[in-house]
Amino acid sequence: MGPPGERATRGRAVVEKPFGSDVASARSLDASLRDAFGNDRIFRIDHYLGKESVEGIQTLRFYNQLFEPLWNRHHISKIELTLAEQSGTEGRAGFYDGVGAIRDVLQNHMMQIVA
């Protein structure tokens, strides 16, 4: 990439969400990324979707002949998730201070499981 303001002609940007400290800073960062790479070459990801436990939910539902026909709105009245971590923030305190545990764990990871 060349001087500031010049769009990259090669490569891609992979951005793990969340980024920015609020809506305004996230929009500003996103605009800078789009200016530098173009929206078609930016990949916004969340590493949590690749966790085996999250992937296993889809496998359990769609590839299991017992659950697949029953796991829908007609047979399930509610879903309850429990965040049961036995460990604290050991080694992650700086991360949680900067990003926030609620923003990372609840807003992202728990809601991805619900989705």
Reconstruct the topology from this structure.
Elements lengths: L12 E4 L6 H15 L4 E4 L6 H11 L30 H7 L1 H14 L1
Parallel strand pairs: 1-2
Structural class: mainly alpha
Order of strands, main sheet, comes to: 1-2
Percent of residues in β-strands: 5-15%
The backbone outline, from C-alpha atoms, is extended
User: H/E element string?
Assistant: EHEHHH
Radius of gyration: 19 Å
Describe the structure.
This protein has 115 residues and is mostly helical. The chain has a domain at 1-45. Helices cover 41% and strands 7% of the residues. It has a two-stranded parallel sheet with strand order 1-2. The longest helix is centred in the N-terminal third of the chain and has 15 residues, at 23-37. The mean pLDDT is 76.
